[in-house]
Write a structure and sequence with these properties.
With 419 residues, the chain is an alpha+beta fold. The protein folds into 3 domains: 3-95, 3-Layer(aba) Sandwich (Rossmann fold); 114-198, ATP-grasp fold, A domain (Dna Ligase, domain 1, 2-Layer Sandwich), CATH 3.30.1490.20; 205-418, no CATH class. 44% of the residues lie in helices and 18% in strands. The chain contains 15 helices and 14 strands. The strands form 3 sheets. The chain has a 5-stranded mixed β-sheet, with helices on both faces. Strands 12-11-10-13-14 form a 5-stranded antiparallel β-sheet. Strands 6-9-7-8 form a 4-stranded antiparallel β-sheet, with helices on one face. Strand 2 (30-32) and strand 3 (35-43) form a beta hairpin. The relative contact order is 0.13.
């Protein structure tokens, strides 16, 4: 019986890894194509490695290498030399700094708001070269053209957002309402390069879509609310046509950059979908934020990892960018026709039809197993531990009840759907 070792490359999170590990154990061996397979999990340790060693892993779920270089280089080694399947592609991390993603999607014709990249306000420091600041100042005096900050802001239009080109978790994001706030915000940006991006004022819906492999869940999102309340339990907040467009954009981005565990943020106004952020190397899958949608995320993660390993899906770290650009550059195609063509490419990359057939054959009881797990004492212990490590002691009882209520609602809806 083939046994597939799934490595979990983690930071500090314990909630979703614990849930994923428990679900893998509950599923046990599964059959596909007349052969029995099983998944085995292991948390990856960061340690020195011989570039010629052969790893034991079939697949690695990466949540760490976007900021920690040692595991990033390990991922590159096992991708280049050993064909280990990776979630996500370590060779496109630079694109996850948003700038390259904006550029690619603008070329493909998506409705990205007006966006400019600004030079560093302060000379960037470097740990590599002691004289880096000196060299920067000399170079800048020769070749950095002077620019009018007010003119650029006026061209983008107020209000606008200033956001780090390499940011995440809303750190460093500032809404600038007028010229009076402009210089203070830019002066405070320090050594970070910033984008100016036009605000989509009066939008109807803020949607956040979480994609895991061939599946995407589109959720109503409010970033102004506390973490536990940002995702609303709402199933009909988008029309079928708009929902399909959001899913298509998410799948397009992921197929283009070879990302298989990513989230995308879009603003919908008057029926038009504006993607504003779609590059998250470590997307939010925390129990305390996803709550109602957490069981779906764990099922999707198990289904995709089982599919990739059991079918020996090739680890695609190469990009077929020209296939997408050939569509994007065509002037005879409408926006809708381009989206349909992109969806065809993306569905092909993710093998959507084959994936759905695999899930039906190999994991027909996964929904029932997930329901049993969410209602088990094991899951209750995980929930309590997660709340205790996330919130102050005086709020533990409140938040355990809060999340339990949302998960009970999910369980009820699952039973209705099954019936």
């Amino acid at each position: 019986m083939p046994s597939h070792l799934v490595g979990l490359l983690l930071g500090t999170e314990e909630d979703w890894p614990g849930a994923y590990e428990a679900l893998v154990e509950r599923v046990g061996p599964f059959t596909y194509g007349g052969e029995t397979h099983e998944l085995v999990t292991e948390r990856v340790m960061n340690e020195p490695f011989d570039l010629r060693y052969t790893p034991r892993h079939s697949l690695v779920i990466d949540r760490l290498a976007w900021w920690y270089y040692l595991p990033r280089e390990w991922l590159k080694k096992i991708a280049l030399m050993d064909d280990v399947y990776l979630l996500n592609n370590p060779f496109t991390f630079q694109a996850m700094e948003k700038h390259a993603a904006y550029c690619a999607m603008i070329r493909l014709g998506l409705k990205v708001p007006e966006t400019w990249l600004l030079p560093h306000k302060l000379p960037p420091q470097s740990v590599r070269f002691e004289s880096a600041t000196e060299k920067f100042e000399e170079m800048a005096s020769r070749y950095n053209a002077p620019f009018d900050l007010d003119e650029i802001a006026a061209r983008v239009g107020y209000p606008l957002f200033m956001k780090p080109f390499d940011g995440g978790q809303w750190i460093g994001v500032t809404r600038i309402a007028d010229q009076g706030e402009l210089h203070s915000a830019y002066d405070g940006s320090g050594e970070r390069m910033m984008h100016f991006q036009a605000s989509v004022e009066g939008f109807d819906v803020f949607a956040r879509s979480l994609s895991i492999g061939a599946e995407t869940m589109v959720m109503k999102y409010d970033p102004s609310k506390p973490l536990h309340d940002r995702y609303s339990v709402s199933h009909d907040f988008l029309s079928a046509e708009t929902g399909n467009e959001v899913v298509t954009i998410s799948r397009l981005v992921n197929a283009f950059f070879r990302w298989e565990f990513n989230s995308c943020e879009t603003l919908i106004k008057d029926g038009e979908v504006h993607p504003i952020d779609y590059a998250n190397a470590s997307p939010d899958v925390a129990l305390t934020s996803l709550h109602y949608y957490f069981p779906w995320a764990m099922k999707a993660l198990l289904r995709w990892t089982a599919f990739c390993t059991a079918t020996a899906r090739p680890n695609r770290i190469d990009q077929d960018t020209r296939d997408y650009f050939e569509i994007g550059d065509r002037e005879d195609l409408s926006y809708e026709e381009k989206l349909a063509a992109y969806r065809g490419l993306a569905d092909g990359f993710f093998e959507v039809d084959r994936y759905e057939e695999f899930c039906a054959e190999a994991l027909p009881d996964l929904d029932e197993l997930m329901l049993e797990y969410v209602e088990s004492d094991d899951f209750d212990r995980l929930l309590v531990q997660t709340v205790q490590t996330t919130f102050p002691a005086h709020e533990h009882e409140h938040f355990v009840a809060h999340y339990r209520g949302l998960l009970d609602a999910w369980a009820k809806d699952q039973r209705v759907t099954a019936a």
